[in-house]
């Protein structure tokens, strides 16, 4: 199946690791031009160099998407590099790791700024460019945590729930102009940040990282009996960012191995 990605240009945030990196890899392999955005300059440079070895059109921009000025800088960098913007994938995200009982305005605002506001700000900044061409794709990366309330990750879940709602609002506002907006909801995925969390918990508990994952699967079973991988989530993102998703908009799609059991 031809995804209609070749020759198109995409912006990807959170692109130096995990789901964002996996998405960048697939888009580049499919012939798209990609602007990779992330905070860590050294790691980002390594990803850009690796993807660019096959003479692909890959650029990198070290930037903090929580900075209100970042959206215009990202848009301008993409236009300077490629002369067009066909899609925006917002994979940047973070969890403060704060339990609800330790609530603070600062941590909740930080979660909202990174997980919600940065994605919507970037989308709104790029919408006029995509509207001129009459074609665009906006894909945000939510989380199953946005559908299931958990006091251990309350600020993260609340921010992702807001992102899911805002993405649907983008769809209702701009789909008639050819700009489709959708949200992917990963379940527990073995990204670098999750693996680091395993190691930290294992050290604290005096067990192995595999033991930590096993306990998590016991507490919150996944129908498939395992955690996901970044590329499994990325494949859904790439479909939604492609021409093949021409009649899919305003949806929150689970990619979670059967974690959520309730109807949406």
Automatic annotation (TrEMBL):
In what residue span(s) does the Ketoreductase domain sit? 8-188
Q: Which Pfam families match?
A: adh_short_C2 (PF13561)
What UniProt keywords apply to this chain's record, in alphabetical order? Answer: Oxidoreductase
- What EC number(s) would the UniProt record show? 1.1.1.100
Q: Which InterPro entries match?
A: KR_dom, NAD(P)-bd_dom_sf, SDR, SDR_fam
Q: In Gene Ontology terms, what is one molecular function of this protein?
A: 3-oxoacyl-[acyl-carrier-protein] reductase (NADPH) activity
**Broad class of enzyme this protein falls into:** oxidoreductase
| Gene3D superfamilies linked to this entry | NAD(P)-binding Rossmann-like Domain (3.40.50.720)
Q: Any keyword Oxidoreductase?
A: yes
Q: Identify the stretch annotated as signal peptide in this record.
A: none
Q: Does the keyword NAD apply?
A: no
**Similarity annotation:** Belongs to the short-chain dehydrogenases/reductases (SDR) family.
What is this protein identified as? 3-oxoacyl-[acyl-carrier protein] reductase
To which species is this protein native? Answer: Microbacterium immunditiarum
């Amino acid at each position: 199946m031809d995804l209609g990605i070749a020759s198109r240009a995409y912006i990807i945030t959170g692109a130096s690791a995990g789901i964002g990196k996996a998405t960048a890899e697939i888009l580049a392999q499919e012939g798209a031009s990609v602007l990779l955005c992330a905070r860590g300059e050294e790691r980002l440079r390594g990803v850009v160099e690796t993807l660019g070895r096959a003479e692909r059109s890959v650029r990198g921009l070290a930037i903090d998407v929580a900075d209100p000025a970042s959206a215009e800088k990202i848009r301008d960098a993409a236009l300077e590099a490629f002369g067009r913007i066909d899609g925006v994938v917002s994979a940047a995200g973070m969890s403060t790791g704060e339990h609800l009982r330790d609530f603070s305005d600062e941590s909740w605002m930080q979660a909202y700024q990174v997980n919600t506001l940065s994605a919507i700000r970037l989308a709104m900044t790029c919408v006029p460019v995509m509207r001129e061409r009459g074609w665009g794709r906006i894909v945000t990366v939510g989380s199953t945590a946005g559908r299931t309330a958990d006091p251990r990750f309350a600020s993260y879940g609340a921010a992702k729930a807001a992102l899911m709602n805002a993405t649907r609002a983008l769809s209702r506002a701009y789909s008639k102009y050819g700009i489709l907006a959708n949200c992917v909801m990963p379940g527990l995925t073995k990204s670098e940040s999750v693996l680091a969390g395993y190691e930290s918990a294992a050290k604290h508990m005096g067990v192995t990282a595999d033991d930590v994952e096993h306990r998590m699967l016991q507490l919150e079973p996944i129908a498939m009996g395992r955690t996901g991988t970044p590329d499994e989530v990325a494949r859904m993102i790439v479909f939604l960012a492609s021409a093949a998703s021409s009649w899919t908009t305003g949806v929150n799609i689970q990619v979670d191995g059967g974690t959520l059991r309730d109807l949406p």
